[in-house]
Amino acid sequence: MIRLNQVKLPLDHAENALQDYVLKALSISEQQLVDIHVFKRGYDARKKSQISLIYTLDITLKNVDEELLLANFDNDPNVRQSPDTEYKYVASAPSDLTERPIVIGMGPCGIFVALILAQMGFKPILLERGKSVHERAKDTFRFWRTSELNTESNVQFGEGGAGTFSDGKLYSQVKDPGFLGLKVKQEFVLAGAPSEIIYVSKPHIGTYKLVTMVEKIRSKIIELGGEIRFETRVEEINIEEVNGERQVVGVTLNGGEVINSKHVVAAIGHSARDTFQMLHDKGVHLEAQSFSIGFRVEHKQEMIDQARFGKNAGHPILGAADYKLVHHCKNGRSVYSFCMCPGGVVVAATSEEHAVVTNGMSQYSRSERNANSAIVVGISPEDFNNDPLQGVELQRKLERNAYVMGGSNYDAPAQMVGDFLAAGKGKPFEAVEPSYKPNVKMTDLSDALPDFAIDAIREALPAFAKKIRGFDSKDAMLTGVETRTSSPVQIKRGADFQSINTLGLYPGGEGAGYAGGILSAGIDGIKIAEAVALDMLKKHS
Known about the structure:
By secondary structure, the chain is an alpha+beta fold. Helix content is 27%, strand content 24%. The chain is built from 12 helices and 23 strands. Strand 5, helix 3 and strand 6 form a beta-alpha-beta unit. Helix 3 crosses helix 12 and helix 5 crosses helix 12. The longest helix is centred in the C-terminal third of the chain and has 23 residues. It is globular and about 70 Å long.
């Protein structure tokens, strides 16, 4: 096949425009064209009055010498041979293999570690401290309605991981030369995701679809010989000295059971603070990692649509508009938007008692009245003397303070942007109705974050308004606090994906500091599964 990149057409182009473009671009006849496959479709909205669609196409031809055709376009970077994107398994488990790899955590990283290992015949044991996704959803929605928190079954903990209650974004900026992201999306489609996630440039799924998809992937893992245990917390990773080196030999569970294995994957998620402490106590090498803190900001979605798309706002191909913003402040800090949820809601995302944490969530339709995004300020390890667990303590301190500011009942502290910028006291909300449940308490958010963060956000909001008109409007809403943008800890690993000081321990995903979202976590999971499989074969032979 021949790949055509940067195929640019008007937003409302005719149905046959792609074919006409291909015939002209490659100087071929209609009879030589067999098929046009859309590999990717994005849009260019820099000119709101002239929004364009940008395609990457794979072209199947007949009666054409493709080598000669490519030679004729040797100087055109947008005409190339289509790459081989088919996923190829690196190993197959021998029939007499008795060891079973253990995977801790059932977020996207852990799920894909287990799925790929199961597809290769290694029969993984997957341990999840929370509940199955259906039961977990019940607990989460109950908390939002009644403020009854289950610390082991919530937005952070349970089957599917934190990404289940999010926008379900499936795009990433990680380099992916092996097209592992395509494998992730293909598995999601097989589990019931819309087929368009394969080719649109910013695919998303939404919470309700993610719930059913996760259940189907779980069934596939079990059908392939994997074992899944819910409400099973790993109390201890067991380590022994073997030939002068630290070697994982298994895990001890919350009920006292010991499972032996020399291959343990720690895909624990960014909120497994007790597990970070356990690993630190066991001498596993951890390092402090940068993360961010801030608020959720809400605007009317129609305002964001108008600001981004102008007269094309509401177009079905464009959908609800998103944005990505960054501002470098005078105090040396950077403020940026994170986890933007078009047509979504702000959700309660704590996993600890007497703490308030916010996050954003959307359904596939993105049809709620508000757009929301985290507006956050970067925190570096130098802010807490590079202590690997002090970032966790900073998060916890801010979350507990927000709990008190909200009324000590899991309501969140909130303030209108106009009052926040004027450093005034909060007033009853006006045009933008806050979506956070259980509820919000209007207050002065200047006490919710360190002074440097408050100053930086106050500087950034008007700067963002120069890119998105109305972003600093007085009746937009801020809700606090957003603290779990990423893990404050990195569990250091080497090129073989094993801990740098503990053989057999494979840290992975967002919690270990190696991913930032569903897609990148899934990609990391595939890489870890391959590393585990190859090492198990090596030790078996």
